[in-house]
Amino acid sequence: MPKFIHVAAAVICNENGDILIARRPATVDQGGLWEFPGGKLAPYETARQALARELNEEIGIQVTSASPLIAINHQYPEYNVLLDVWRVHSFDGEAYGREGQAVRWVKPEDLKKYSFPEANHSILKAISIPDYYVITGAAENEEEWLLKLTRALNAGAELVQMRVPSLDKNEFLSRAKKALALTSESGAKLILNSAADLLGQIDADGIHLSSERLSHYSQRPIPRDKLLSCACHNLAQLEQAIALQADLITLSPVQATDSHPGVEPMGWQRFKELIEQVPVPVYALGGMGREDIRKAKGLGGQGVAGIGAFWQQVSRSGK
Ligand SMILES: Nc1nc2c([nH]c(=O)n2[C@H]2C[C@H](O)[C@@H](COP(=O)(O)OP(=O)(O)OP(=O)(O)O)O2)c(=O)[nH]1
Ligand SMILES: [Mg+2]
């Protein structure tokens, strides 16, 4: 059996929003690559305890607040690793390379300039997307819909899924082009809820596959530099999304929701159990409001997704 190691690692943010990375010494495994500080759990430790100890030993800081970001199971040729990644929100002390390693604070958008171990791909994706994911409402006429999108962007939306199932392919494409102009201008990302081949006709940031579409693909249908978002409701669909190398997942319904009356919600406990082994950022969906972001993140989710609280409400308050 391959060796298994359990590692706690930290995405540490300072007050400017910069993130700390450290360079692994040339002589160790994955040497010369950049990493998020951290290390192996001692047999008696929880991941949270190991995080605190490793960050003190490696970069001389004392963690005062941290929450789980993502857990990644990865197979290297020589061993399997479970990377338990935390976001560190606050700490005491000044970070320095206590073991002589180079450390650097970098802007999130500059992380792509550095080489990381293979397992870090999902961590980098998780850092690049926000904690709420706006799904657009469906039916209104185009002018009204674009106005609502503008309001959502003005209210701070950074990741938007265009979901308008009533439009045919040409109408969808034409509206998507207008939406992309708006999201690009405000620095937000636009994901299209459509078949993957639409990306050949419009340079949006990614594609969202409904759980029905998800089952039709046998491999990742879009390039690695685009975002693949997948809708899941159960373990089998989560496994399928992982197999397709999804970059983000919506898992629903967590709570009861008006948009799907009569569907039994899974509840927060089941949400937590399902995502524990999922190496991809997962948004809780179904009956969510902004006040649920903390809850979802505390359970290891990326945040929350929704139509109601993030689309209609924005427009109502703007009227
Ligand atoms: N800390 C950290 N480890 C990572 C990252 N990505 C990644 O694949 N790993 C892997 C590489 C290593 O095999 C393992 C971390 O082990 P480590 O060598 O840092 O462990 P440690 O700090 O306890 O070191 P040591 O006491 O055993 O020398 O996890 C990352 O971003 N941060
Ligand atoms: Mg280490």
TrEMBL record:
This is 8-oxo-dGTP diphosphatase. Keywords: DNA damage, DNA repair, DNA replication, Hydrolase, Magnesium, Metal-binding, Mutator protein. CDD domains: NUDIX_MutT_NudA_like, TMP_TenI. The keyword Magnesium applies. Its cofactor is Mg(2+). PROSITE patterns: NUDIX, NUDIX_BOX. Residues 2-131 form the Nudix hydrolase domain. Mg(2+) binds at G38, E58. InterPro entries: Aldolase_TIM, Mutator_MutT, MutT-like, MutY_C, Nudix_hydrolase, NUDIX_hydrolase-like_dom_sf, NUDIX_hydrolase_CS, NUDIX_hydrolase_dom. GO terms for biological process: DNA repair; DNA replication; thiamine biosynthetic process. One of its GO terms (molecular function) is 8-oxo-7,8-dihydrodeoxyguanosine triphosphate pyrophosphatase activity. 8-oxo-dGTP binds at R24, E35, F36, P37, G38, N120. NCBIfam families: mutt (TIGR00586), PRK08999.1 (NF006530). It holds the Pfam family NUDIX_4. Gene3D superfamilies: Aldolase class I, Nucleoside Triphosphate Pyrophosphohydrolase. Its EC number is 3.6.1.55. It catalyses: 8-oxo-dGTP + H2O = 8-oxo-dGMP + diphosphate + H(+); 8-oxo-GTP + H2O = 8-oxo-GMP + diphosphate + H(+). Belongs to the Nudix hydrolase family.
